[in-house]
Amino acid sequence: MVRINRxxxxxxxxxxxxxxxxxxxxxxxxxxxxxxxxxxxxSQIGVxxxxxSRMPGVTRFHRPDDAEEALQRVQxxxxxxxxxxxxEPEMLPEQMVLIGMEECDRLIGEMDLWLEELDPLxxxxxxxxxxxxAFLHVSRTVARRAEREACILxxxxxxxxxxxxxxxxxxxxxxxxxxxxxxxxxNTGEEESLWTPLGKRK
Length: 202
Description:
This protein is an all-alpha fold. The chain is built from six helices and two strands; from the N terminus they run ββαααααα. It has one domain (17-189): Hypothetical Protein Ta1238, Chain: A, CATH 1.20.1200. The chain starts with 15 loop residues before the first strand and ends with a helix. 56% of the residues lie in helices and 3% in strands. A two-stranded antiparallel ribbon has the order 1-2.
């Protein structure tokens, strides 16, 4: 069990931070940037949950899960991934349970069910809408940045620097958030704002 009785330690005042295994690295490290972006994504999803709680009628999915439970589950999974990325894979504690393909595949299964209720896209969607929808679009873009940073880390430090399941999860969670944004718009009667190409805007 984690026990935190003090947040400020002064250990990072010189521009370094500790990884999960206790090793010290500069805060400009690619790895630090990656788990920092995953933390940012988690915080954005927290804003989505807050905004959804303010809107009657969007707190539940028709299937398969309660929306609040699904988002909370994803936040926990992102915390797991962020913790994993805060260390080189070979230095992870033996008792640490890692995200696997089961969690990745669950995201696909949920998306497929929600897509059954949605009309096919005939244009790109502008990232706007009600507060939950707009923040879901922000969240998916942060997820894409986290995915890019994971790929940069792998390119910089080699295949073993980040597990393929982590990159898979970050790829799928962005799509998951996008589909959720569309699902909420559909079920709250929002009109999606579609991109109009320049030639048709003139």
